[in-house]
Design a protein that fits this description.
By secondary structure, the chain is α+β, with helices and mostly antiparallel strands. The protein has four domains: 158 residues, OB fold (Dihydrolipoamide Acetyltransferase, E2P), CATH 2.40.50; 216 residues, DNA ligase/mRNA capping enzyme (D-amino Acid Aminotransferase, Chain A, domain 1); 89 residues, Orthogonal Bundle (DNA polymerase, domain 1); 68 residues, BRCT domain (Rossmann fold), CATH 3.40.50. It contains 25 helices and 26 strands. The chain has a five-stranded mixed beta sheet with strand order 2-13-10-3-9. It has a five-stranded antiparallel beta sheet with strand order 16-15-14-17-18. Strands 5-4-7-8 form a four-stranded antiparallel beta sheet. Helix 12 crosses helix 13. About 1% of the residues have low confidence. The structure holds 2-(butylsulfanyl)adenosine. The site of 2-(butylsulfanyl)adenosine (IVH) has 14 residues, from strand 3, strand 8 and strand 13.
Length: 708
């Protein structure tokens, strides 16, 4: 954070010249942070530091009202956000990758695949190996060979329409050339900025005395989310194609042939890709590229291995948003040492107390780090990390930097072990570690028990509510929530939607208050109005119920379609109790388990939550979630139970296949089971199925039904 030289002096002691200089610097500095925060998702400073800048700007302006600038941060409600892009549903979800950190993880990955496919000892597996590019993924749709659309990954299910910007990237062809270009193909790959281009850019920035950028990845991300495609065009971005989404017809049988085909069509592909026939060959490739890493023209953070045969990829499918047939073997993280200045305890939206290391800023892998996570109370105690210690910090790719441990040789003689608070630092309620009823073990996380009396929890919930993957309200971010919360204008989600009415009743309406203008307030109200309709899965995610992330919200929405159907089911589970069928039905939903159900029940049993939800629903309309089934099949919508030993495919593959065909796979037999597939030596489940008079299938019946 750049601070003006005069920053620490009281405003009343500044000369006009000094105040002018300060206000100019503050405007530039805050515009920079606004852009990082809103546009590139890469804040460099904490909210507290940002507030410090804003406060200083205000006090200097108060002292020198004549010097208030046209572009003063006090006139804005947040920076122009990067919104404004339309949304695109990905026809085929954009997945992420599971990670491997050592050779054993790679071996496990290969073993899992062999097991899933039921391969014999003598059936070998071939993989492709290629660098994992540290950029951002993109899906580019070609129809009849013409570039028609490009979308960011977004949450994997839905991304942003960045067509106009991607069209300006030089290496990406407008047309695919070749006899075998299919009528529809979504080419997927990574957009990145080369190290050389990034260095040249920063050199020019230094030359002209303007800001310098943290790293190529953030810069590429920001470039892609420009409102003006001309800006994107001026930035030297590059692209590698490495996979695909929707594809009307496969032009090859292996991953490696696909990449060769991509190249023939005119798409840029990574020349370092190689096929490997064994785990040893994969590991050798990994070390080879790790050696060459520094000399590569672009940043990479690991190696991606993919099963080469596409029929195997198809059979393997994916699990919890990552393919079973690919993995990222990560390079070890960058490490640095610095001084631990303080340990700050942050309170999250679920009350979790998270210790954050406040560090003497240090550069790790090209990025300045001044905060790092300390995980939890036990970690601090186990590693005996003390305030004032020198500590080693690691930063790997896109994850939050972590404190590895203290450097004891450098410990100061008067240091004392860190005492983790037993009270919430914000509301002073007791902070406790919940004990698991079954195992009797205490949770690693200490939580504030204040619930909705804890301002930190309330504010964090509201921030989550308006965040990008939830209600995504332009101009209403964390900072505005802080402000409106402290003004008592927004205390629960519904208040956001009644803000306009409330404002009309204010003695000094917002547009007349310091720091706002009529234009910005009008803009905010219309951004809020734009979100009065929301899809069910987003709403569910926005509520911030414990254990309900985006994926789980989507799984639930997929199952129930509407909020009404969902509520009926949860209410039944609450009324009928833990042993009820209603409860079992919830637990049996794919992707959902007892922990999620417990969290749902706890949330929907709480009167305060119900009131807040009712107030919200009086203001917003919830659209049903319509899940487009890829293909209708004989088992779509049916509930299937597998029991006994299958011979033609592993249990895992059978389950995955059923789900892909739109069936639900349950673990236990009930009246609601449509089919019971009984392999050899089926036992009690088969008996129960017969007793209930259910449809029992042999393995062959099942394969015929599944159309295999
Ligand atoms: S394959 C279905 N190959 O890594 C599998 N991903 O951590 C799709 N990435 O979201 C991914 N280089 O953005 C693949 N050579 C590569 C990659 C790569 C970078 C990114 C990609 C993905 C992320 C997962």
């Amino acid at each position: 954070m750049k601070l003006p030289k005069t920053f620490l002096r009281p405003p009343s002691e500044l000369t006009v010249v000094e105040a002018t200089a300060e206000l100019e610097l503050l405007a530039a500095e805050m515009a920079h942070h606004d852009a990082l925060y809103h546009g590139e998702d890469a804040p460099e400073i904490s909210d507290a530091d940002y507030d410090l800048l804003r406060h200083r700007n205000e006090t200097v302006e108060e002292q020198f009202p004549a010097l208030i600038r046209e572009d003063s941060p006090s006139k804005k409600v947040g920076a122009a956000p990067a919104g404004g892009f339309g949304k695109i549903q990905h026809a085929v979800p954009m997945l992420s990758l599971a990670n491997a950190f050592d050779d054993e993880d790679v071996q496990d990955f290969s073993d899992r695949i062999a097991r899933f496919l039921g391969l014999k000892e003598d059936q070998s597996l071939s993989f492709t190996a290629e660098p994992k590019i540290d950029g951002l993924s993109i899906s580019i749709r070609y129809e009849e060979g013409r570039f028609v659309q490009a979308a960011t990954r977004g949450d994997g299910g839905e991304g942003e329409n960045v067509t106009a910007n991607v069209k300006t990237i030089k290496g990406i062809p407008e047309r695919l050339e070749g006899q075998d270009v299919p009528p529809v193909i979504e080419v997927r790959g990574e957009i990145y900025m080369s190290k050389a281009d990034f260095a040249a850019l920063n050199a020019a920035q230094i030359e002209s005395g303007t800001k310098i950028y943290a790293n190529p990845r953030n810069f590429a991300a920001g470039s892609l989310r420009q409102k003006d495609p001309a800006v994107t065009a001026s930035r030297p971005l590059s692209f590698f194609a490495y996979t695909w989404g929707e594809l009307s017809q496969l032009p090859a049988e292996t991953q490696s042939e696909m990449i060769v085909t991509f190249k023939r069509w005119g798409l840029p592909t990574n020349p370092l890709m190689r096929t490997c026939g064994s785990i040893d060959a994969l590991i050798a490739y990994y070390h080879e590229i790790a050696e060459a890493r520094a000399g590569l023209g672009y940043d990479i953070d690991g190696i991606v291995y993919k099963v080469d045969r596409l029929d195997y990829q198809e059979r393997l499918g994916f699990v919890s948003r990552a393919p079973r047939w690919a993995i990222a073997h990560k390079f070890p993280a960058d490490v640095a040492t610095t001084e631990l200045l303080d340990i700050e305890i942050q309170v999250g939206r679920t009350g979790a107390l998270t210790p954050v290391a406040k560090l003497n800023p240090v550069t790790i892998g090209g990025v300045v780090v001044s905060n790092a996570t300390l995980h939890n109370e036990d970690e601090i105690a186990r590693k005996d990390i003390r305030i004032g210690d020198w500590v080693s910090i690691q930063r790997a790719g896109d994850v939050i930097p972590q404190v590895i441990g203290p450097i004891e040789a450098k410990r100061k003689p008067n240091s004392v072990p860190f005492e983790f608070p037993s009270k919430c630092p914000v509301c002073d309620s007791d902070a406790v570690r919940e004990v698991d009823e079954k195992t009797g073990e205490a949770d690693v996380v200490k939580r504030c028990t204040g619930g909705l009396i804890c301002p930190a929890q309330v504010k964090e919930r509201l921030k989550h509510f308006v965040s990008r993957n939830a209600f995504d309200i332009e101009g209403l971010g964390a900072k505005q929530i802080e402000l409106f919360y402290s003004d008592c204008l927004i205390r629960q989600p519904a208040d956001i939607f009644t803000l306009r009415r409330k404002n009309e009743g204010l003695e000094t309406p917002l547009e007349e208050q310091k720091g706002f203008g009529k234009k910005s307030i009008d803009k905010l109200f219309s951004a809020i109005d734009e979100r009065r309709t929301i899809r069910f899965d987003r709403l569910l995610y926005a509520l911030g119920i414990r254990h309900i992330g985006q994926g789980t919200a989507r799984d639930l929405a997929k199952q129930f379609g509407t909020i009404e159907a969902f509520r009926t089911s949860v209410d039944a589970a609450i009324t009928d109790g833990l042993e009820s069928e209603a409860h079992a039905d919830l637990v049996n939903i794919e992707g959902i388990g007892p922990i999620v159900v417990k969290a749902l029940i706890e949330f929907f049993r709480e009167a305060h939550n119900l009131e807040a939800l009712a107030a919200l629903l009086a203001e917003v309309t919830v659209e049903p979630f319509v899940f487009e089934q890829a293909a209708q099949s004989a088992v779509t919508g049916k509930t299937v139970v597998f029991t006994g030993t299958l011979t033609q495919m592993s249990r895992g593959e059978a389950k995955a296949l059923a789900e892909r065909l739109g069936a639900k796979v349950a673990g236990s037999v009930s009246k609601k089971t449509d089919y019971v597939v009984a392999g050899a030596d089926a036992g009690s489940k088969l008996k129960k199925a017969e007793a209930l008079g259910l449809n029992v299938l042999t393995e062959d019946d099942w394969i015929a039904l599944a159309g295999r």
